[in-house]
Design a protein that fits this description.
The complex is a heterodimer of chains A (433) and B (567).
Chain A: H1 18-23, H2 29-33, H3 38-48, H4 60-65, E1 75-81, H5 91-97, H6 99-113, E2 115-122, H7 127-142, E3 158-163, H8 173-180, E4 204-208, H9 209-213, H10 215-221, H11 223-227, E5 237-244, E6 250-255, E7 258-259, H12 260-267, E8 277-281, E9 290-291, E10 299-300, H13 302-307, E11 316-321, H14 326-340, H15 346-364, H16 370-382, H17 390-404, H18 406-412, H19 424-430
Parallel strand pairs in A: 1-2, 1-4, 2-3, 5-11
Antiparallel strand pairs in A: 5-6, 7-10, 8-9, 8-11
Chain B: E1 10-15, E2 18-23, H1 28-34, E3 58-61, E4 68-69, E5 80-82, H2 88-104, H3 119-127, E6 146-147, E7 152-154, H4 164-172, E8 178-181, E9 188-191, H5 204-208, E10 214-216, E11 229-234, E12 243-249, E13 252-258, H6 271-274, E14 284-285, E15 290-292, E16 298-300, H7 303-312, E17 320-324, H8 330-342, E18 353-355, H9 393-409, E19 415-419, H10 434-439, E20 442-447, E21 449-450, H11 457-461, H12 467-472, E22 475-478, E23 487-490, E24 495-499, H13 512-522, H14 535-545, H15 554-557, E25 562-563
Helix pairs in contact in B: 2-3, 7-13, 8-13
The chains are: A alpha/beta (433), B alpha+beta (567).
């Protein structure tokens, strides 16, 4: 597991200073990119097969190809450093420890897209990473690597670091754009898509920090070299934020296609205190949970995890051991989504809290068997009916936890053994019209 | 907003199997209207930007994997759309949307102003009708009666966060007082600290609100809508002629709502017009003709006596002044023209005749809707030669009125006739000296009431008061007030609209045109044949005999008006 594309220099404490970073090769790739046409750059990224690392896994080269050029409007590049998916903490490593890699990746993307303006939208809670990236941007401007005449090429490229204000939804690209423009971070209707109508009505590309950080290596070594790593449909490496009941939680750079069990047991040291793995959420709380037995033959790539019934997502792997109460864990996650719903559209705004309340009742022992069907029905009316995918993300913990651990939910539901009035829940289920 | 290009390309699509042809890109809610199908919606409004947040207008479009919202989906060639009529998936989504809205919505129907004309109630009965499955201990609680400004009170719990009010203030008045605060199901509409919802069109947000979240401070709790009698009319406050629905109860105006008319006022109404119907009603109304004696007391008289007095004064056209109220209908003006010609021998378009016209200053927001005048039928003056019809019609009307008033003030008038309330502007009352009044040989006023009633300050101090007229009159004949009249108005864009009376006419009192016809009759002149009895009869007669009103019938004018053909 030697390939280090993103984290090769994060161990060095001075990597965040431009002089040290350059000694280790920073800003070499961008000088090469300056000699390439925009078409060539896009072609290289397409050839690499690089997929968006924020969670959606959309092919980056293809996304860049959607941007209409020469329509008289400036193109904006946005670095999505909102990193709010629960369990995800990989982008902060890059921003804190190797910010110049990120900056270099952004310049390369800017050259490919013909963008003059870019912003790092970083979640408000990341005070230290924001400090780091801002300091690095300042260094880059001082050296003429950013500004009106980058590297003496006559080309202009700017980076603005914009801090968010504490909303998960601002990781959704159109909500991010709204927030950047100074509005409330509420997603926009699509169509139109940001590639056509984005920041201030202009074509905009939103890429994850990790995606952008992969670009220098791809340009230096070629797209096909990147494609040769990993698997055919999931090329390259990915940063995994491993957390939970592990001996060695942390951020790991892994070649895609690696065995998930091996990752957990070898790299992360297995479950702590000699306990056993019970469940895994492979890619952040918005992807379905899997039981330990489900992941026996699963590899860390988009296809394998999808075939197992979940998603690679942001690569935030959360491992839970046998002491975990799945109902409590589900409630914890549901509360997060209720708290983060932007409130714009009816199903998510009202439905999120409703689902949370039902799960709360289950946890407290005041639920009835039909409540599980109710959760499923309510979730079914939220998913696919909202302005943005938050609604689909929000129903995933509730639905997947109940699907995978029905025994735990059913055990918490009180069985009605008499007709005496034991509280509202009992009477209701008896007299529903 | 729907924009119409010079040459819209038409596309054919089918909605629930009905084939229709509409401009390409027309949103599906509007397209469905063409097909005669209602797609329910809350946040969508024809004249506001698309928000797409209520999710009520979801439809199924063949080829799209998920349901899509009709308000944000444009018609394309060959599109196949299914609404709740043919798609169970859509019907279920609509049922669910209502269930979601209702879980935190308070059971306020018994005390909510909106009951009976509430889109939540209506859609629930139409698209849901199921008991709610929300069985939790508590729901979200929000502020219950927050005054947002001088005219509007908010109930945060009833609000469904469609943001129509927010978008109205952002896009129409461009004052942006309102916003959505907090997030998730704690979201609530409010104003920022120290701000107020106080723009001149603020009451319009209450019209826009589909539920009872926004209420009129003036009318909160005053009546249930089903006890009221509604009338589709126009506001007589200015020459815009906003389309309104006036609701009365016990002969009092208790509610005014804007009607949607894309050509006139979209769905907006100014606060002065909406809440100002009291200005139009004289507190103490006249019931019989009066002659004012030297002592100042009024004594009963008859039209015959008045006619005799009028004939006894020898005065030519240049010693006569005829002032016309801006509230007169086209029917009134038509008969007035005949009266002046046939009875007083004053020729058409004479400078002895002027319609009262005062311009007013308007702030930037008011200018978006309100006209700079107090004259709902000002443009009709040009049909009778009492004003020009070109671009400078306002200036011409002002100078014509001021000129005639000037000659009255200078004592050059012997015979004065004032037809209708505020025929002379109340603000000009002090310009007419006692001496001028005493030197008039004949002074007749057709007014709805006396201005001495202190109970109706709005009327006495407002722009439609007859205090200048009454002060100058020797003879007073009662006529219907503007809220008791029926007829046509020509608005600033030369659109004919129907004025329909929300109040029942007082017994024995008639419109100006009927009084003038009677006055002519007792003077020995027949203006109209015996079979012209009602305003409708008169209009039909006008349409048949006068080319200016060719093709004008009440039905053609309808509830939304038509542009005058000869304009």
């Amino acid at each position: 597991m030697a390939k280090k594309i993103l984290t090769r220099n994060v161990e060095f404490t001075d990597q965040c200073r431009i002089a040290a970073a350059e000694k280790r090769g920073a800003y070499t790739a961008v000088r090469k990119a300056l000699t390439m046409t925009s078409e060539a750059l896009i072609a290289e990224v397409k050839a690499s097969g690089l997929r968006g690392r924020g969670g959606a896994g959309f092919p980056t080269g293809m996304k860049w190809g959607f941007v209409p050029r020469n329509i008289g409007k400036p193109v904006f590049l946005l670095n999505n450093a909102d990193e709010s998916e629960p369990g995800t903490f990989k982008d902060r490593v890059l921003l804190e420890r190797d910010p110049h890699l990120v900056i270099e990746g952004m310049i390369i993307a800017g050259l490919a897209l013909g963008a003059k303006w870019s912003a790092v939208y970083i979640r408000g809670e990341y005070a230290y990473p924001a400090f780091q990236i801002q300091a690095a941007v300042k260094e880059a401007y001082a050296k003429g690597y950013l500004g009106k005449n980058i590297f003496g090429s006559g080309i202009e490229f700017n980076i603005v670091v914009h801090r968010g204000a504490g909303a998960y939804i601002c990781g959704e690209e159109t909500a991010l754009i709204e927030s950047l423009e100074g509005n409330k971070g509420q997603p926009r209707l699509k169509p139109p898509f940001p590639a056509v109508v984005g920041v201030y009505g202009s074509p905009t590309v939103v890429n994850n920090t990790e995606t952008l950080a992969a670009l220098p290596w791809i340009i230096e070594n070629g797209g096909s070299a990147y494609a040769a790593i990993g698997t055919e449909k999931s090329p390259g490496t990915k940063l995994f934020s491993a957390s939970g009941h592990l001996v060695r939680p942390g951020v790991y750079e892994i070649e895609l296609g690696y065995s998930m069990l091996e990752f957990i047991e070898k790299d992360c040291g297995g479950i702590r205190d000699g306990r056993k793995l019970k469940a895994v959420i492979p890619g952040g709380s918005s992807v379905p949970i899997l039981r330990a037995e489900d992941i026996a033959n699963v590899t860390l790539d988009y296809e394998s995890i999808r075939d197992a019934g979940s998603m690679l997502g942001s690569g935030a792997l959360i491992a839970m051991d046998e002491t975990t109460d799945m109902v409590d864990a589900c409630m914890n996650l549901q509360h997060f989504y209720t708290h983060e719903s932007c409130g714009q559209c009816t199903p998510c705004r009202e439905g999120s809290h409703w689902v949370e309340k039902i799960i709360h009742r289950i946890a407290d022992g005041h639920a009835v068997p039909s409540d599980l069907d109710l959760i499923r029905d309510v979730c079914r009316q939220i998913a696919g009916h909202t302005i943005c995918p938050f609604g689909d993300a929000m129903v995933t913990p509730a639905l997947s936890f109940i699907k995978k651990f029905p025994e735990e939910f059913e055990a918490r539901i009180r069985t009605i053994i008499s007709t005496s009035n034991k509280g509202g829940a009992d009477v209701r289920s008896e007299c529903s019209a | 907003m729907s924009e119409v290009n010079a040459q819209p390309e038409q596309v054919t699509l089918s909605i629930d199997g009905r084939e229709i042809s509409v401009p390409k890109g027309m949103n599906l809610i509007e397209a469905a209207k063409v097909a005669g199908i209602e797609i329910p919606h809350y946040c969508y409004h024809t004249h506001l930007s698309v928000a797409g947040n209520c999710r009520m207008c979801q439809v199924k479009v063949e080829g799209m994997p998920k349901l899509t919202i009709g308000c944000n989906t444009g018609a394309t060639e060959g599109m196949k759309v299914s609404t709740h009529l043919t798609s169970p998936e859509v019907a279920e989504a609509q049922r669910a949307t209502l269930e979601f809205i209702l879980i935190n919505h308070p059971l306020d129907c018994t005390v909510c102003d909106q009951a009976g004309h509430c889109k939540l109630q209506d859609y629930y009965y139409e698209y849901n009708r199921q008991p709610s499955r929300f069985a939790e201990e508590d729901k979200e609680h929000k502020v219950k009666a927050l005054p947002l400004g001088p005219n509007v009170i908010l109930d945060g719990e009833r609000c469904i966060l469609c943001t129509r009010c927010v978008r109205f203030c952002e896009e129409i008045t461009e004052t942006a007082e309102l916003g959505v605060f907090n997030r998730g199901d704690k979201s609530v509409i409010s104003v920022a600290e120290g701000e107020q919802l106080d723009n001149p069109l603020s009451g319009s947000v209450v019209d826009l609100c589909p539920v009872g979240a926004l209420t009129h401070r003036n009318w909160r709790f005053n009546t249930r809508i089903w006890y009221t009698k509604p009338v589709d009319s126009v506001c007589p406050g200015c020459s815009t002629g906003c389309n309104v629905k006036i609701s009365t109860r016990d002969e009092q105006v208790v509610h005014v709502k804007a009607r949607l008319n894309a050509e006139v006022n979209r769905e907006w109404l100014c606060d002065e017009g909406r809440y100002g119907f009291d200005r139009l009603v004289a507190g103490e109304q006249l019931s019989t003709p009066l002659v004012i004696k030297d002592s100042g007391e009024g004594a009963r008289t008859t039209l015959a006596d008045i006619a005799a007095a009028m004939q006894s004064v020898k005065a030519g056209a240049n010693e006569t002044a005829v002032f016309l109220s801006p509230l007169l209908t086209i029917e009134d003006l038509y008969v007035a023209e005949k009266f002046l010609l046939d009875v007083l021998k004053i020729e058409a378009g004479s400078s002895s005749v002027a319609m009262q016209y005062k311009s007013r200053q308007l702030d930037a927001v008011s200018q978006k809707l309100v006209s700079p005048d107090f004259a709902p039928n000002a443009r009709a003056a040009s049909l009778f030669g009492w004003a020009g019809s070109g671009e400078n019609w306002r200036e011409e009307m002002t100078s014509r009125y001021e000129a005639l008033l000037g000659s009255l003030v200078a004592g050059k008038v012997k015979r004065l006739i004032m037809i209708g309330d505020a025929a002379i502007a109340p603000i000009d009352a002090e310009r007419i000296s006692e001496q001028v009044v005493s030197q008039l040989e004949f002074s007749l006023a057709l007014v709805s009431g006396s201005s001495s009633d202190a109970n109706n300050e709005e009327f006495v101090n407002g722009p439609f008061s007859s205090r200048a007229v009454i002060r100058t009159a020797q003879y007073l004949v009662p006529v219907l007030g503007v809220l008791e009249k029926q007829g046509l108005y020509l608005n600033r864009d030369q659109r004919l609209q129907r004025l329909i009376a929300p109040l029942a006419p007082r017994a024995g009192v008639r419109s100006e045109w009927q009084v003038l016809a009677e006055l002519a009759r007792v003077s020995g002149v027949t203006l109209l044949s015996d079979n012209v009895v009602s305003a409708r009869d008169l209009l039909l007669h006008m349409g048949r005999s006068d080319s200016r009103f060719a093709e004008v019938t009440p039905t053609r004018v309808g509830s939304f008006g038509i542009r005058l053909a000869s304009a």
